[in-house]
């Protein structure tokens, strides 16, 4: 089967910039330095460099401190996009100075910008990551009979080619022995277009990055088929900055990274409040935002960890699979010096200590085992209630229902992969008096194969049958 891929959005950017022709305009007529930030309001793992950062005003506050010292004024322009591709296009055209996007788009960014001196970029920080790859998922319609990635062979699948979600699809199909180029028909669509295509039946599955899988499942428009954590390969989002702009205005990049550290600290310490702010700024339901921004979800950590860079190098082959991209030297593309400088100036921690720490910075409070802990968000509450394990969470939900309390959302970690997921959307297995949640049918089936005593039950059954 021929795979259909529409041209990449960012490819057209090359026509905007000729060799030796600079399109950059950094200063206004009155001498004010302009900085243009490209971000993705609905891409939850970039919020510390985008939606949350903008909402809290941290960058403007940091730049004001520079103004107070030097007298130089700054103007910040925020540009919101659905994917990383148009951000890269604008960086090639020297119209965006700092941008954030997922790992696969970052590869394309580095490859596309390196041939234009004024557009060359560097990866300067991480926004959020998942050590197993759970940031990207494949969903199918609620009534789909598909139970594993193998069932997509010969089918139409929606994905944004060049995105992190597409990268996960390529890896998942390859591991299943399905040729990503001939085994499925990929429709290159923006996330919201793909969501509509899934709902209308135009495609049989959609592979996307956060928060789209969680959003569609939350809205009962899809169910999870494949959890990217099955790949057990780190996925992350990060920040790229144009080298020419950073050289001309190093204080701006410094202020940006300091502000990102401010936002990272805020989301680690106040995840629910952060989720509400991101919901307001993105238009996403707060329950969906908190799925990823909550404790045990995305690891919000700015440091450029060796494990992430190693995985990044392993992704380089992906470039060749989707088009004619120049090789990218990852070691030259990654630069941690600006972030180290920001760390020392902000004084919020030690860079090397945080670099070595691979634990999720945000855990469910009051619990001892992060791998089992979940939490419940009751309607009208300004904080969530922690639960030590999934069975305890079911008991709490049962008791709340008996008292007439409404559960806004409940979150549990997948029993196999650890992915944070909606309790009422999980596949539940009862084994004795213990209840285990799984993100996918395939994961539950793997448990059944090793534990024949387990019985699959619905969420409603699990709440009803759990012993108080």
UniProtKB/TrEMBL annotation:
Pfam families: NMT1. Keywords: Signal. Residues 121-274 form the SsuA/THI5-like domain. PROSITE patterns: PROKAR_LIPOPROTEIN. Gene3D superfamilies: Periplasmic binding protein-like II. It comes from the Bacteria. Residues 1-18 form the signal peptide. This is ABC transporter substrate-binding protein. It comes from Antrihabitans cavernicola. The lineage of its organism: Bacteria, Bacillati, Actinomycetota, Actinomycetes, Mycobacteriales.
